[in-house]
Structure formats: structure tokens, C-alpha cells
Specification:
single chain; alpha+beta; UDP-n-acetylglucosamine1-carboxyvinyl-transferase, Chain; 2 domains; 14 helices; 26% strand; binds ligand EPZ
Length: 418
């Protein structure tokens, strides 16, 4: 397995273009099977999870090809079929196909999806919403069998907890249901908004996009379309934070600034200057990083859980103590152990809280990624550290970053993949 070698201590400088969003692209790709038409999805990131989704689409009869500016999905002959287990289990987003197939074909059989080891990740909210729409489920030998009976019917669904995936899945099923679905307690993450916009472009009728109350008028015929995936707010946030950690100044080209408010405001609290420009986001790290008392992850528009470990790493270089609270996933503090080995003063308080005290200088070490964002956090630690850091387990990082070494080299980092 490949590893990433970093010679740390270089201030990041220059500009880098931010890739398309993983978590926006994946549900849009899953939704193409609802169109029975030809789709051209621009700015689709070339990452492992997208390749897995394309493999799943091919297994369902879609003809998929990479064009100069995106991926073409011809879903005219899409139909339910056996999907490769490795691709289903390789990522959480395979779950989106459950909603899409249930609506489109009326039945579905698939293994439990996989994903990062960041917590329990149940699917009860997804199944409860499908049941409200009239579907029935049974599980046998780890396979979920869903059946829409005589067809899904619109319903009033109240999500008891905000869930990005369950909201997307409900929307995917509800566009094929007869009648109107009112979904309250819907997740407001920009990726949900992107999916709804794509579906509307195909002919769906969805009101309340961007709010926690979505009204979906189902049963409309959807046709294929051309659509652009927005830039990845988590990748942009990773490079913004890495810039702070190394004391640099960067331009994040195409960064989706309007979706990064919590991260930008956190960076400003640490003393950074952030300026929105036509090309993207300029970030200038301060001479001395300031800590903040508390950083809490929240649902959108709060601070994203996906940037928590990267922020934690950067806090080791800030002056003062910070309490970090993780409220979304229960297993997102695995970064503490490698960080301690690198010299970080970090302490686990309980399963959902950790404390960081700085400033300290980190020392390079050999370490291993265990999940996507934790891997990006280790790379950030390596950029900040004295000497060489080796991050093994690159496959996890490849799931969400097109080419993290190339991007960071563009910003002057001494980083390469072996
Ligand atoms: C999405 O995961 C993202 N993944 C995650 O990004 C992101 O961390 C997360 O949303 C939160 O923003 C994709 O979009 C592919 P949730 P998702 O359902 O949809 C609980 C990354 O690194 N829950 O909003 O799986 C769940 O356990 C990834 O790019 C239930 O209890 O997250 C969690 O505590 C990792 N029952 C909370 O809700 C359910 O049926 C929020 O999860 C579903 C979720």
C-alpha cells in the first residue's frame, strides 16, 4: 500500500484549485438512474468513492464514460440487478441507491453499506422514512430486501434527528412516489441542496430547498440533464486549516465560500485574515495562532464534523487551551494517539470531548490513516511538524481527495507519494 512522505515546516503559499465535492457528487450520480436518460455531470471529482459509484451504476445497466469535463451517465437502460458487494461495502453512499431503486423499480436487494469507521452509522432513519412512504423491508443474511408493493405513496415524514444521508434517500424515493411528501426535520447541508437542484433540473418539483422543510411533488417524469457539482467545502476547509497550521498565505480557487461560514469564522477567531474574492478565498495565517475556548461540531451551518480532526491538529500550534466537542459521530478522536506521539498536548476527556493545549512544535513520525478525514488530519500534522512524517493507508485519503500531494505541492509543500 502506498504511503505519503512529508518534510514539514514549510509555510503553504500560492494557489490551488478546489476539486468538486464528493458528498454532493455521489447522491447526484445515484439519482441519474431515476432519469432513464443521458446525464453529463461536470466537475465530478476523480476519487475512489466516485469510481465505486460508477461501478455500481454500470452493474445496474448504465453506460458510463469520462468526458473531457465530467462524467456521462446514460441511464436509459438502467434496471435493478445484482450489484458488486465490494462496491456496496466500500462506501456509505451506496445507500443512496436504496432510495433511488425503491422509487424507480419498486424493489431492491442490497448488502449493508460500508463507510468510514467514525461511529455506529445505523440506517434506521432511512428505513423508517421508506416505510412511511409504503415500503416494506426484511433482512436476511446481511442483505436488505425492500419492496414498494403497489408503489410508493407520498407522506408526511418528520425526521427525529438531522441526517444528511436519510434526507437525501427520502428525497430520492419521494420523487418517484405518487402524491406529495412533506419532509420536516430535513438536513440543510449544501449537499442536500445540490441533490434537490439536480432533481429539479431533471423535472422534479421540490420546494423549500435549503430549508429543513422539503415539499416533494412526486410522480413526475424525470429526464437526463447537464449539471455542475459545486466545489468541495471540506477539501477547501482542509487546505485553509493547513495554511493556518503552517503559517502561510493561500488562495483557494473556486472555494464555496458561502458554505464555509463556520470554518472561516473559526479561522478568524484564530487570528487569520480571510477574504472572499471572485477567484475564491484568500487566507492569510497570523504570526501567532490564537486558541479559542471551545470548538463544537454541529449540523450545517455549524462547524462540520468532517473538519474536526484537522482543526484539532492545527490547535496544537495555537496559544492556549481549547475544548473540542464532537456531537455528530462517536468515534472521531482517534487522531489523539498519533498526535501525542508527535508531541501534541492532547487529552481525551470523554467519548465526545477532547482538550488541546498549545503551542507545541510537532515532530515528524511514522503513522497510519484509519479513515478519510483522520488521514487528512495526519497529513496536516506532517506539514506542520519538524522532520519527516510518513502517513500510511493512503487508500482512505484517496476516497475523498483527488490528489492531496499534488494540491499541497502546488502550495509549496514538500510532500510525495511512494
Ligand atoms: C454524511 O454522512 C457525510 N457522508 C459524512 O461525510 C458527514 O460526516 C456526515 O454526513 C455529517 O455531515 C456523505 O455525504 C457520503 P448523517 P451520513 O446521516 O449521511 C446518525 C466524509 O468524510 N444516524 O447526517 O452518513 C448518525 O449515526 C463523510 O466525507 C442515525 O442515527 O451522516 C450520525 O450520528 C464521513 N440513523 C448522525 O445521525 C440513521 O439512519 C448524522 O449522520 C442515519 C444517521
Amino acid at each position: 500500500m502506498d504511503s505519503i512522505h512529508i518534510h514539514g515546516g514549510v509555510c503553504l503559499q500560492g494557489k490551488v484549485r478546489i476539486q468538486g465535492s464528493k458528498n454532493a457528487a455521489l447522491p447526484v450520480l445515484a439519482a441519474t438512474i431515476l432519469t432513464k436518460g443521458i446525464n453529463l455531470i461536470h466537475n465530478c471529482p476523480k476519487i475512489a468513492d466516485v469510481y465505486l459509484m460508477l461501478e455500481l451504476l454500470r452493474s445496474l445497466g448504465c453506460v458510463v464514460s469520462w468526458e473531457e469535463d465530467g462524467v456521462r451517465v446514460d441511464a436509459r437502460n438502467a434496471a435493478p440487478n445484482k450489484m458488486p458487494v465490494s462496491a456496496i461495502k466500500g462506501m456509505r453512499s451506496s445507500l443512496c441507491l436504496l432510495g433511488a431503486l425503491l422509487g424507480e423499480a419498486g424493489e431492491v436487494a442490497m448488502e449493508y453499506p460500508g463507510g468510514c469507521v467514525i461511529g455506529e452509522r445505523p440506517i434506521d432513519l432511512h428505513l423508517a422514512a421508506f416505510r412511511s412512504l409504503g415500503a416494506e423491508f426484511r433482512e436476511e443474511n446481511g442483505i436488505i430486501y425492500g419492496n414498494a408493493g403497489k408503489g410508493l405513496m407520498g407522506a408526511h415524514i418528520d425526521m427525529p434527528r438531522s441526517s444528511v444521508g436519510a434526507t437525501e434517500n427520502t428525497v430520492l424515493a419521494a420523487v418517484s412516489a405518487e402524491g406529495v411528501t412533506v419532509l420536516t426535520g430535513a438536513a440543510r447541508e449544501p449537499e442536500v441542496e445540490t441533490l434537490c437542484k439536480y432533481l429539479c433540473r431533471c423535472g422534479a418539483q421540490i420546494e423549500g430547498i435549503g430549508t429543513d422543510r422539503l415539499v416533494i411533488v412526486g410522480g413526475r417524469r424525470l429526464s437526463g440533464t447537464e449539471f455542475g457539482v459545486p466545489a468541495d467545502r471540506i477539501v477547501a476547509g482542509t487546505y485553509l486549516l493547513a495554511c493556518l497550521g503552517t503559517g502561510g498565505a493561500v488562495l483557494l480557487e473556486d472555494a464555496p465560500v458561502s458554505h464555509m461560514e463556520a470554518v472561516v469564522s473559526f479561522a478568524c477567531r484564530m487570528g487569520a485574515e480571510c477574504q472572499e474574492a471572485q477567484e475564491g478565498l484568500y487566507v492569510q495565517a497570523p504570526g501567532r495562532l490564537l486558541s479559542c475556548d471551545r470548538l463544537t461540531t454541529e449540523i450545517y451551518p455549524g462547524f462540520p464534523t468532517d473538519l474536526q480532526s484537522v482543526a484539532l491538529v492545527v490547535m496544537t500550534a495555537a496559544e492556549g487551551k481549547c475544548l473540542i466537542e464532537e456531537t455528530i459521530f462517536e468515534n472521531r478522536f482517534r487522531i489523539l494517539e498519533p498526535l501525542r506521539r508527535m508531541g501534541g498536548k492532547v487529552r481525551l476527556i470523554d467519548a465526545g470531548k477532547a482538550e488541546v493545549e498549545g503551542p507545541v512544535f510537532l515532530n515528524g513520525t511514522e503513522t497510519e490513516a484509519w479513515e478519510l478525514r483522520g488521514g487528512a488530519a495526519l497529513v496536516t500534522a506532517g506539514l506542520m511538524a519538524d522532520g519527516e512524517t510518513i502517513v500510511k493507508g493512503c487508500d482512505y485519503i484517496d476516497r475523498g481527495y483527488e490528489n492531496i500531494c499534488r494540491d499541497l505541492r502546488e502550495l509549496g509543500a514538500r510532500i510525495y507519494r511512494v
